[in-house]
Design a protein that fits this description.
single chain; 484 residues; alpha+beta; Sulfite Oxidase, Chain A, domain 2; 2 domains; 5-stranded mixed sheet; 5-stranded antiparallel sheet; disordered N terminus
Length: 484
């Protein structure tokens, strides 16, 4: 009897044939030993180790951790089955963060320098124990310098929120792998990763709450955000040093252009990796990588669209502005950071009896009428706040350098500007010599050709090019000039 030759196995349907139900078999489930062997430890569906795991010193401790795995699916491979996760996708998000986060870091550190912390009481935190950029006299040119710096800090930081969340989603199997470490080296790496994740979430959360003026935390924002930034910087630099070679290799494995052309029907898992990001038993995809990247990019664009109006001065688009989009009518219809009522300023203090004292080599006292009788200078300048909003208005008043000349300060080093406001972190501010002598630095009496309103600093306020908004002191009562 003739035996029939063994039939060849029927090929799996190809995605090119248009079968939308096509799903490639997992290498582990189909017996792909070579692919499965790329794992450091092959994991069966019940999450138990399928092969002997090697532990570093002290071996008994790490082996004990393996046996003490918490109950539930959180620390097992069964929960993390997305077919999109893998080193390439994580590296794409990593590249975006590698470009964007340094912008946020540098502008944040420069923002602190813009407060001139070399002058006592001028910046918070007052003491940084050497954790700062080198001090230098903050310039007044270009006039939009602080507006650009803080606008970039807030706008880029907010735009990166969806990217950070997507990056954390892409590595979440790694965050919940068990045991958390198999050697001391891995333990150090995991601790640095915990610092990185914790610090970036802390910085984003406190930053967003500050932008929205929602201080639900019971600590000083400036101090906590500043020191949190240095924790993040250290963890970020460590993570980049450790993972940059892996990111380069992963990005070379696939082309972004090809992924952007791949529809859902042809979306396949990445090859099993040694880092445990790729699911060993992936579920069918519900979205393509192209779709996921589009969702993240769209989220960043949406956040930018409803917030950047505060920075560029187009308030109708600033739908999430904590200061609203209207502040009244007329020439004083623009942002107010602190009202006269909140600052405790009364009409008795700002009425006819108000006097400005300028103390230098001579001490002079000037009424508002005296100031209006002096040479007036008009200039259009922006005011930018640390929260990211800014406004550009036309200011009229007396040049600060004219007041310096009246009081006399041959060896001027800096000036202390004091407000009628008796409480508040910024009831006084220090200006360096360059700021006091700038031709556009004013003791402003009017804005947009109208008298200042009480909320905008009547009877007089400081307006200096490129100065952080809170140091454009309102309700000025005294300017004390200090010699070098």
């Amino acid at each position: 009897m003739r035996s029939e030759p063994p039939s060849a196995p029927s090929p799996e349907p190809s995605p090119a044939q248009g079968d939308r139900n096509y799903w490639p078999a997992s290498p582990i489930r189909s017996g792909g030993a070579a692919a499965a062997g790329t794992r450091q430890a092959a994991v069966a569906e019940d999450g138990e180790a399928a092969a002997e795991v090697e532990y570093g010193w002290p071996r008994p401790l790490f082996a004990l951790l393996q046996r003490l795995r918490p109950p539930g699916p959180l620390f097992t491979a069964r929960l993390w089955r997305s077919p999109l996760r893998g080193p390439w996708l994580t590296s794409v998000f990593g590249v975006v963060l590698l470009v964007g986060l340094p912008v946020v870091i540098v502008t944040g550190l420069l923002s602190y320098i813009a407060y001139q912390p070399q002058f006592a009481g001028n910046a918070f935190p007052a003491q940084t124990h050497g954790l700062h950029l080198p001090f230098f006299a903050w310039p007044t040119r270009p006039v939009w310098l602080y507006r650009l710096n803080q606008g970039l800090h807030v706008a880029v930081g907010l735009a990166l929120v969806p990217v950070v969340l997507a990056k954390l989603w892409s590595v979440i199997p790694k965050l919940f792998s068990w045991p958390p470490a198999r050697s001391l080296a891995q333990l150090v790496e995991r601790l640095s990763l915990a610092l990185l994740v914790g610090s970036i979430l802390f910085e984003l959360a406190t930053g967003v709450l500050n932008v929205e003026y929602d201080y639900v935390f019971g600590f000083d924002f400036y101090t906590a955000h500043y020191y949190g930034a240095w924790v993040f910087i250290a963890a970020f630099l460590t993570h980049v040093a450790l993972k940059f070679p892996t990111m380069r290799r992963s990005l070379k494995a696939r082309r972004l252009r090809d992924e952007l052309r791949t529809p859902l029907a042809r979306t396949k898992p990445e090859p099993l990796d040694e880092y445990g990001l790729v699911a060993s038993d992936p579920s069918p995809p519900s979205i393509s990588r192209r779709g996921l990247l589009g969702v993240v990019a769209g989220g960043s664009l949406a956040v930018t669209a409803v917030t950047v109006g505060d920075t560029v001065g187009w308030r109708p688009s600033a739908l999430l502005s904590a200061r609203g989009r209207s502040y009244g009518t007329g020439p004083t219809d623009f942002q107010v950071n602190r009202t006269a009522a909140v600052a405790g300023i009364t009409t008795t203090e700002t009425g006819a009896g108000w006097r400005l004292t300028v103390a230098g080599q001579r001490t002079i006292s000037l009424s508002r009428t005296d100031l209006l009788a002096m040479a007036q200078h008009t200039v259009r300048l922006p005011i930018a706040c640390v929260e990211g909003w800014s406004t550009e208005q036309t200011w009229t008043g007396v040049r600060l350098r004219d007041l310096v000349e009246l009081a006399g300060a041959d060896r001027l080093d800096h000036g202390i500007v004091t407000s009628l406001e008796r409480r508040g972190a910024f009831s006084r501010g220090v200006l360096n010599a360059g700021q006091l002598r700038d031709p556009d630095a004013l003791l402003a009496l009017k804005v947009n050709h109208a008298d200042l309103s009480p909320d905008h600093g009547y009877p007089a306020r400081v307006v200096v090019p490129a100065l952080p908004g809170v140091h454009n002191t309102k309700w000025v009562s005294r300017i004390e000039l200090r010699q070098a």
